[in-house]
Amino acid sequence: GNEWTDVRELVEAMAGTEVLIRGRVHTYRHVSSKKGFLIVRQKGCLVQCVVTESKENHVSVNMVKFVKQLNSESFVDVIGYVVLPKDPVTGTTQQVEIQVRKVYCVNSALQQLPLYVEDAARSEADIQAGKPGANQDTRLNFRVIDLRTATNQGIFSIQGWTQIGFIEIHSPKLLAGSSEGGSAVFRLDYKGQPACLAQSPQLHKQMAICADFERVFEVGAVYRAEDSFTHRHLCEFIGLDVEMAIHKHYSEIMDLVGELFPFIFNKINENCQKELEAIRKQYPFQPLKFLPKTLRLTFAEGIQMLKEAGVEADPLGDLNTETERKLGLLVLEKYNTEFYILHRYPSAVRPFYTMPCADDPNYSNSFDVFIRGEEIISGAQRVHDPELLTEQAKRFGIDVETIKMYIDSFRYGAPPHGGFGVGLERVVMLFCGLNNIRKTSLFPRDPLRLAP
Ligand code: 4AD
């Protein structure tokens, strides 16, 4: 399989090697029917890709034509050789060029964009000198494009830099409309305008991906107004949200989950022995059983296991709390783990933004993660095609006007992407075998409790 190289890693020492890069069409300069220069941008880094008609490289004049008609900001995969240019390259960040062999359009942007990155990036001095530029309101209205400038990539990389290659973001908690499509939101008055508290960072973390941040996370308050009087629902909880561009498959997201949590569990077991002992003294529990390589089962496999155990569950419906628990026990028996991923859920039971499976739209590129038979995470690949997204939102009864800016974000060029959301209190509750989420919330907020 092909591996993608980061544009910023393209250096002279790589001359002669073949690389595959993914980035946006920044600009294109046409020389003739046989030659053109495509500048590809990735997170503010630019590399010049030379497309030349050549029998040897299997590049035809049609290929040059194809590259010429690509819309700005579209995502492309480029395969080519790293070459040292005869003259030093200007106007790019990389000093090497790519001699193109193949170009694939991964996802096209609109032909006419409401804002161009160059116009958003124009300096104030240039604008005063009469060069075209975009004013602040335009830039904020089309923030997902504005954020792609090298300047904004810089500002938010500094603000959210981490050692792990994910940028920490802080999405707004005051929203004009619901973010999960549900009705259970806390409504409030935003200076005369109806508003609500965010049910999740879902829409904005996806927009951060459209804004080229590639891999982002957030730890923050999440608000749910549902009247759930259970041992595992709060009205305010701490969500750990992750969103990332993916290259091929939603398994890339499950790989992350499957490695991250055993790492966390091991660290807790190694470093918190005294604390675990203290908890166990009042609330006895068995250490969590988990595998170094996290088990993955498909939803259909789960349904089959239940069936064999005499439990009927709808293969196109959702599991209820009881069947989830039962499946947890069956998995423990068969695979000796209390931590596993269940994926390829029926589309009908997932949120509107979930990507259907390419081979069967009744199922989706989605997953839940369980500890001791209870859900701690839900995640999925997202729909990045604005038309399909609109269709799915309508099918779920969502007023698409309220999420117009979110849907439009995907018209300005978006990469395939996905992510997940973790409930912090649930993870701690289930890791420690506790029976109530109120025990793991510092000052719990539930349908009946707003104090202390
Ligand atoms: O399953 P949920 O609602 O999924 C989302 O919010 C998606 N935006 C996530 C995504 O990226 N696709 O919530 C995610 C997790 C749940 O698995 C659960 O652990 C926790 O958040 N959670 C709650 N925790 C406490 N009280 C509640 N009312 C919760 N609702 C969800």
Automatic annotation (TrEMBL):
Catalytic reaction(s) noted: tRNA(Asp) + L-aspartate + ATP = L-aspartyl-tRNA(Asp) + AMP + diphosphate
Keyword RNA-binding: no
Subcellular location: Cytoplasm
Aminoacyl-transfer RNA synthetases class-II family profile domain: residues covered: 165-444
Record EC number: 6.1.1.12
Signal peptide range: none
Keyword Isomerase (UniProt): no
UniProt enzyme class: ligase
Keywords of the record: Aminoacyl-tRNA synthetase, ATP-binding, Cytoplasm, Ligase, Nucleotide-binding, Protein biosynthesis
Family affiliation: Belongs to the class-II aminoacyl-tRNA synthetase family. Type 2 subfamily.
Protein name: aspartate--tRNA ligase
Protein species of origin: Brassica napus
